[in-house]
Structure formats: structure tokens, C-alpha cells
Amino acid sequence: MIVGLDVGGTHADVVLLGHEGVLNEVKVPTDPANLFQTVLTALDQLTADVDPHRIERMVMSTTLTTNAIIQRKLPQVGMIVSGGPGIDPNLYRTNDHYACVKGSIDHRGREVKPVEAAEIEARCTKFKDAGIRNVGVVTKFSTRNPAQEIAIAKILEDHFDKVFLGHRISGNLSFPRRIVTTYLNAAVYPIHRQFFEAVQKTLLQKGWEVPIRILKADGGNTSFEASIDYPAQTIFSGPAASVMGSLAFGSEKGETLVMDVGGTTTDMAVLVDQVPLLDPLGVELGGHKTLIRALKTHSVGIGGDSAVRFENDRLRVGPHRDGPALAKGGPTPTPTDALVIMGKARLGDREKALQGFAPLADAMGLGVEAAAAEVFEHTCRLILAEADEMIARINQQPVYTVHAMQADKKVAPATILVLGGPAPLLAEKLESLSSRKVGVVPRWAVANAIGAALARTTCEVNLHADTEQGTVFAPEEDFQQSVAPSFDRRQARRMALDLLQTKAVARGANAEHLEMEITEDLQFNMVRGFSTTGKNVRIRAQVKPGLIHDYDPVAGRLM
Amino acid sequence: MLKAKNKTGLVFFPAFDWAIDPTHPEREERLLYTQDQVVEEGLLDIDGLVELKPEVVENADVERVHFCLPDPQAVMTESHFISAGGATTIGKAVMDGTVRKGFALVRPPGHHAMRVVHGARGFCNVNIEAIMIEHLRQAYHVDRVAIVDTDCHHGDGTQDIYWHDPDTLFISIHQDGRTLYPGSGFPNELGGPNAIGTTLNIPLPPHTSEEGFLYAIEHAVLPILADFKPQLIINSAGQDNHFSDPITNMNFTAHGYAELTRLLNADIAVLEGGYAIEGALPYVNLGIILAMAGMDYSHVQEPNYDPEQLRQSESVTTSIAKICQLVRAYWDHRQAIAAEVRAKPDCQTRTRQIFYDTDGIHETQDETIRLCEDCGGALRIDSQSDRGRRLLAVHIPRKACAQCQSQGHAWFEQADTKQYNLVALQDRTTDSYTVRPA
User: Fold this and answer.
1) What is the percent of chain A with per-residue pLDDT over 90, rounded to a whole number?
2) Lowest mean pLDDT, pick from A481-495, A527-541, B41-55, B205-219
3) Is residue B341 part of a domain?
4) B408, B396 in Cβ contact below 8 A?
């Protein structure tokens, strides 16, 4: 059995899955001030009669680190950054203790200016004096040559709890995003570690010796042990949980748009042949643009509890939420109230909804029932318009080869899958307003927790070879070798897949059922003068986000 | 978060799978390190810098500018349709106001491609700036356009296309044609008899450095632009004036390019040449993008930059001042010069030999322009290549007067199709391209 747990902003959803399907499901309110208690309450309710030895593992998705980042409640960390030519790295300051130091590396990974040890030592002392425990180190082009980051870390490592290095955090280019991502990892590290150690300890006290997995923003999980080195990978995993819960119901061939309608927002994602699309760069959260691998999701400020008002002859929905629906004692009309008035939803006090809706209906020049119908339809139209915009944006993604231009694969989902609280109430209306088929994800209210439970272990490897310099390396893996001039993309692909397999298994993947794929495969002849002097090879490989092998049928039988 | 002062659009199409041939300078790898630098700098995350997906131009866009033998598909690869499309995408975004400025970082380049196209010359098959400009004229009714070509090689293709157009000011700044391909671009090349002065050439001596380039911009280009009052300024932004370029002899720098970009304040920049793909392009492109966006570029500097080594000699400084003075004088006295030129009995015709170095084709052209006070003049080109292909090309300009229109039609209809492989009429008044059946 597997436990899947998704702690969201308002509710924590938790399910117990056996090979035969969902055995139990529980929904408890989230206490944002005490997530630890929320988790324990949910687990206690779920597993009251279950023998803990039968539980193979627990997969969790929480808002813990996400909230800490959004609410800017992060502990002090130290950042050491070196730029070299280009945009002034002082402009990327992430926090108070942020030092730009000497040293630079060019785009081929050649050292241009050395690091000065004395400067780093001075910074080290300053950080220690400020009581800093964790440090991030990022140099420009460290993914082409990590030597300077490593040299700086050597000076620092004995003085701090943990030193995070940019090239280990992500093998992708983008110096500013690498700075932010390294900073976030260092900053959420103590929060993340403390929380999950506490969960593990409490479970052990109850006699649960269950491995804990944590869901990541890319819709895959990672073992708690592995997450310690990359804690920020677990931020923003909520939308991924819902997408993974919908996966099995997407079209086997072709594209499906997934919509998770919540209280404050609607989150959208796209599945292609039941595989979710990934963001080409990484999570954006609370103004931070990162290199954290993530599903491509689009969040719209329209949900069941969005504030509805009539301004300048126009109906407006969201993006803010003033509180719960009128029917539940809230202050402002909401789409949920429209459903209550229309008799579609039975919750709270319909009288309160009718009363609170009256001024809005007056402003619209309609009766209350007609106004409610209009609000409901308008909300659905807004959500669909946002969906169209997301699809258009995906199709506007630039490509860099003639071949890709000619192939020009357009995303055009024929189906929409809805999940979240009001899913069944919306589906019919959405379908009548859209040219796409609209379906509801089975177990729509806890599909997110099911998604967390069934997600695979995912990871990525970036490999870079430069045969003119005679090197191949994978920055995130701390892997470096010399290569012969004959080394080529074929060998590079094999090397990347080997590294990926090792990495995935170390993080908890089932070695027998690894679905690996090459996602970038470029080889350039390097020509100097008029002769070829080497090859420049760039390979990226990943474990495809998807559902674990042995539980696949479970999801299927949920229908 | 960083913010661009000018909202700037960027089309990046490095054509990573296209080369003229494997070891040709115009090869797959050319923009690889530029892409690395642009991505590593995080330029596309800057608020106000937007990447746009290039469109693909149609035959009609190409035939608004060129006469291709026998047709566009025969002389263009898919990559040319995309790079011309990339330039057009930027032009449209600027005209639509979705961005204030834009830079098409595309390949292959185009500024050596002339009106008649038998094949590739100077790594160029079709003129991507001209295809964009004529598209904008058609779709947005833009009239007066200035092109400032800062590639190290003379922009002879663009010069040829706009030779007779009084509404397009073409200024090329380049390494002296006596020392570099294509061997043209001298100050006395001023345009055809109906458009004297709207073609200007500023050849600079080898080893010109930052000081000399910026002097030419400030003392020749900017005052002339101020006089001409274009609605759009296009920069053919070649990057081969760089001190590390392998096929030229200039001493320009990344910082200098950024400074030039700021001074010129073009609406649209289109990448042309530039083959120092590691030492120059990553830094030059970064500088140009930051300067267009109105951002700080003072930290953009090549690793091997040494201002002492790049200082230009006194004689270079003196000769640049003289050339700029000469070009200013030509511009100021363009009407008098035009009167002189038009008084010559043979001013309506010229015969030229054109060599397509990339494809090894020799072409002979007999060109006739109708002298006209009211428009650019009907143009007739009789072109023959050493591959045995002969073309009669008739061009009726965009704002052609009635007489030039009928002259153009007469040339077209009276041509003996038996003598030509192709008889074509490019009528810009109706935006049509017509071929006489053989």
C-alpha cells in the first residue's frame, strides 16, 4: 500500500492506495500555522485501522517551503557570486549577505580571471560573524567549468553547515536563475530538513518504518534522503500532484488540457500522449525565476471563491478572494454562490447567497437567478479564454533548427479534463462553451493525492562534451572525464543514460521500469580557420514524468 | 528584477542544422556561443525583452524585392525563408507597437543579395532586410526608411536594390573596398539618376577602432539621418568589424558596437556577418541587445580586450575625418550632383558584371532606368549568367507615376520571350509579380 498526501492551501487530501484501488480517502482542513499537525491529523484519520507494516511508502506534497518563500520567511544565508563580463551580478542580489567576488569563466569553460582566496576568506569571516549557517556559491558558466565554485567551496566548507554549489543544483545555463535557485536551496534547507525529520521521527514513534518520498514540481518524486541536497526541488509541487492524478485519464494519443479548479485559482497543464509538458526553464514563484524543473502550468486567479463584482459595466471575477462564499458566511458574491443560487451546488445557506447577490444583480440589471447564471457562464468563459491563451503561448515557443521549424508540432488539445472541488458542476457548462470535449477526472476531489502517491521518481542529466578541449562532464553529477577526439554524440548519449540510470535508482526509482529519454541532442563541428578541430556535444536525458509501473492498473480501475 | 527601458523584441534563429558547407564560416556553430552567452546572461528573463518566434516568408514576399531564377525555391533553402521571416517578424512587432525596438539574430544573412538572384554571393541568397522593409511598406504603408549597414563588408546587395529609390536612404560603413570583398562601396557611389544622394558610402581604412567608427556615426550618419527624417531606421548589424574577426582587418569592440547601437538608435537591427564566433559574437550581441533595450552595457567586455593594442593611428583618424567630410558634402550638394548626372546622355543605362563568389556564377546586366521627376522610375534589367540563363526583369516602383507605369508595362509586354528564360514584371503599385508565359 502507498499513502499519498497533498497539503494544499485550504485542505490536506490524503489517500491510501492498494493494488486493488483506493482503499481510503480523507480530507482535513489545513492549519497553515502548523502543517506538521495537519499532516499527522490526516495520517491518523486515514490509517486508523491499517497495519503500518503493510505500507510500502508515503509520498508527500506540501506547501511548506513554497509558503516560506512566498511569505518571505526565509532564514539568512550567505551568497558568493562571481560574474565576469556581461550584466553586473550586483543586479541579481537575492538577499542581504550577497557578495560579488573576483573570478570569471568564459562560455567554453576557460578561466579568464582567477578566484582570490583572500577575498573569499574575508567574506567567510563576515558571514560567520553574521551568524550564517548555510551558503550558496555561483559563478557564471559554472556549468561549463565548475572549478571556481569548487575552489570557493573548499575555503568555506569547514565553516558552515552546508554549502550549495550552482553547478550541482542545475546543469542548465542561466546565471541569474542559477543564483536564485542556489539561494532558495540554501534558504529552505533548514526548514525542509527539520520538518521531514520531525515527520519521520513521529512516524517511527508510532511504529511506522515507512520511507518518505517527496513530490517535486516536475511531477516526479524523490527520496527524502536525496532531497536534502536539493530541497528547493520540492517547492510548488501542488499543481504537479493534480496533473499526475489526471494523467491516466488523458487521451492516449494526442493532447489533453488539465484544469484544477480550486478556491482561489485554476491551474492548467497540458498532457501529450499522457505525458505532461515540462517548462523549458523552471518554476517561477513569488517573483523568483528558477531553474527548478517543473511541469508547464498556468495559474489563473479564478476559482470558486473568487470575488465577483460589476465595475464599469463589466463583470469581473477574481483574481482576489475576499473570503469564503456568501453561502458559507463570506463577504462577497462568488462563483460558488452562483452555483448555490442556481441549485447546482448544495452547500451552506442559499438565503445568504441570494441576499448577498441582490446588489450585484441590480447593478447588472438582472434578476438574482439570471445574474447567477450569467456569473457562472462568465466564469467558465474566462477560464476557457485563459486556456486558449496558454495553448497559444506554448505554440509560440521558438525553435532553433530548420528541422524543428518544418516539423512545427502544434499543441491542440481535443479534450479538457477537470478536477478539484466544483469539477462536475463546471464540466457540462465548459463543454457547451468550448469546441473541446470536457470530462471530469474520477475521484476529482482527491485526484491530487492519488497523483502524489503514484508519481514516478524523476530526474535529469545534462552532459557536455568538448573534444577540442578533450573533456566530457555532467555538472550536476560531479562527473568529469577526458575523452578522445573521436568521442561523439552516440557515445555521449550512452554515457548520459548510464549516469541517469544511476541517479534515478539512487533517488528511489525502480531500475526494472525506468522510462528514460533523450530530450536534447546536439552536436556541432568546431571549425577554426578552415578545418575541423573538435566536436561540441550537448545531451540532456530525463526520466519521463509518469506513473509507477506496478500501480498503473489501479489508476485505470478508478474509472 | 531587471527591466528594459525600451521594450525590445528578439528573434533568435541560429539555424543549428544549416551550413553553406561543413567548414564554411557560415556554419551551424556560428551562433552557438552567442546563444550560450545570451541564455547564461538570462537576457530573456528581463522584463521588457521578449523572444518572438520567426515566421516563414512566402514567395510573394520574396518576389516583392527579387527576381529569382527561375523562382525563389530554386535559389533559397528553408533557412532563408525563415531568416527573412525572422526579420519580418521583428519589423511587424515594431510596427504593431508590441515592442519599441527589435533585433533579428538570424542566419543566413542577406546584404550582398541584389535585386536579381542567380545564386549566392557573399554568403547571401536573398536580402532579408529588403524583404522585411517591402513587407512593412505593403502592410503598414511605411514610406521613408533609412538603412545603416555597419557590416565590415560593403552592403552591395542592399545598395543595388535601393539604388533608384529616393525614399530609402542607404548608408554603408565598411572596410575600404580596395582591401576587402566585395571591392565596392566608394563615396562616389551615390545612387541612380532619380535617387542621387540616398545611397551613401563611408569606407573606413583598415585598423579603424572604436574612436573612428563612433566618429563616423556622430559626424556623418547622424546629421544625415536628421536631415532625411526616416519613419524607420534599420541597422544591418554585421559584427565582423571586431578586432578578432578572422576575415577582416578592423579593430572594433563589443563596447563600441553597444555604443554605436545606442547612438544610432535604430528601430530594427538585423544580424549580417561576423565570424569571430567565440571571441566576438557572444559579447557583441550581448552589447547590442543591452544597448537596444536601454540597459547598462558597461560590463560587456571581451576577455582579451586591450585598449592599448586597439588604438588607431593618427593617419587613420585623419583619413576618417576626410571621408566623413566628403560624404557630408555629397549629401549637402545632392541636388546639384543629380542635375549634373542627369545631364549626361548615357545616365539612364549601365552595364555591370556581377560575380557570385559563393556559387561561382558570372552575371552581366544591362540596366535601363526611366529618368523621372515624379517617382523612382521604371527599371528594366536584362540579365544573363554564364550558366546560360537570361532574364528580363521589369520593376515598377511603389509610387510610380503614370508614365513610368506604362513604360514598365510596355517593356514587359514587348519583350521577345524566346530570347529569355524568364520575363517578369514586379509591379509595386499593385503588389504583383507576373511572369510572361514562354
Assistant:
1) 80
2) A527-541
3) no
4) yes
Whether residue B199 sits in one domain with residue B141: yes
pLDDT digits (tens, 9 = 90+) for A385-417: 999 999 999 999 898 988 888 887 889 999 999
Give CA–CA dist B32/B37, Å, rounded: 9
Question: What are the structural domains, with CATH classification, of chain A?
Answer: 2-71+191-240 (3.30.420.40), 78-186 (3.40.1360), 242-441 (3.30.420.40), 460-543 (no CATH)
A216 CA: distance to closest CA in chain B (Å): 23
Give the mean model confidence (pLDDT) for residues A6-34. 88
Q: DSSP secondary-structure letter at B189? A: -
> Which chain A residues contact residue B22 at CB under 8 A?
525, 527, 532
Q: State whether residue A531 is helix, strand or coil.
A: strand
Number of CB atoms found within 10 A of residue B304's CB: 11
* Residue-number span of the structural domain to which B356 is assigned: 346-435
Asked if B228 and B369 sit in the same domain, the reply is no
A282 and A258 Cβ atoms separated by less than 8 Å:
no
A550 in Cβ contact with A19 (< 8 Å):
yes
Task: State yes or no: is B242 an active-site residue.
Answer: no
Beta strand spans in B213-330 (E): 232-237, 268-271
- Backbone CA torsion sign across B158, B164, B168, B173: positive
Q: Express each pLDDT in B293-319 by its tens digit.
A: 999 999 999 998 999 999 999 999 999
What is the Cβ-side half-sphere exposure of residue A208, based on CA atoms within 13 angstroms?
24
Whether this model's ipTM surpasses 0.90 comes out as yes
Q: Is A107 close to B15, i.e. CB distance below 8 A?
A: no
Same-domain check for residues B127 and B244: yes
- Work out the average pLDDT over B16-21: 90
Q: Locate cell 583619413: which residue?
A: B319
| Cα R_g (chain B), whole angstroms | 21
Q: Are residues B100 and B153 in the same domain?
A: yes
Comparing CB atoms, the residue among A177, A281, A401 nearest residue B17 is A401
- In chain A, what residues touch B12 (CB-CB under 8 Å)? 398, 400
Query: Does B136 lie in the same domain as B49?
Result: yes
Asked which of B272, B302, B335 is the last residue of a domain, the reply is B335
Instruction: Work out the pLDDT band at A559, boundaries 50, 70, 90.
Output: very low
Q: Which residues in A have their CB inside 8 Å of a CB on B?
A: 83-88, 91, 104, 106-108, 112, 140-141, 144, 173-177, 281, 287, 289, 396-403, 405-406, 522, 524-527, 529-532, 536
User: Which position among B80, B111, B112, B255 bears the catalytic label?
Assistant: B112
Number of domains chain B contains? 2
Q: What is the pLDDT of residues A70-124, one digit of tens each?
A: 888 899 999 999 998 999 999 999 999 999 999 999 999 999 999 999 999 999 9
pTM of whole model > 0.90?
yes
B307 plus B421 within the same structural domain: no
Cell 481510503, residue located? A24
pLDDT at A297: 93
Residue B340 falls within a domain, yes or no? no
For range B354-379, the mean pLDDT? 96
Asked if B180 and B263 sit in the same domain, the reply is yes
Confidence category of residue A554, pLDDT binned at 50, 70, 90: very low
Q: Is residue B309 part of a domain?
A: yes
Which chain B residues have a beta carbon less than 8 Å from that of A398?
11-13, 51-54
Q: Is A558's pLDDT higher than 50? A: no
Nearest residue on chain B to A394, judged by CA atoms?
B53
Q: In the prediction, which pLDDT does A552 show? A: 53
Q: What is the model's pLDDT at position A556?
A: 45
Interface contact flag, B22 A527, Cβ < 8 Å: yes
Rounded to the nearest 10°, the torsion over CA B92, B93, B97, B98 is 150
What distance in Å separates residue B43's CA from the closest CA in chain A? 9
Q: Are residues B287 and B373 in the same domain?
A: no
Q: Do B29 and A398 touch (CB under 8 A)?
A: no
Alpha helices by DSSP H, listed for A366-446, are 368-395, 402-407, 423-433
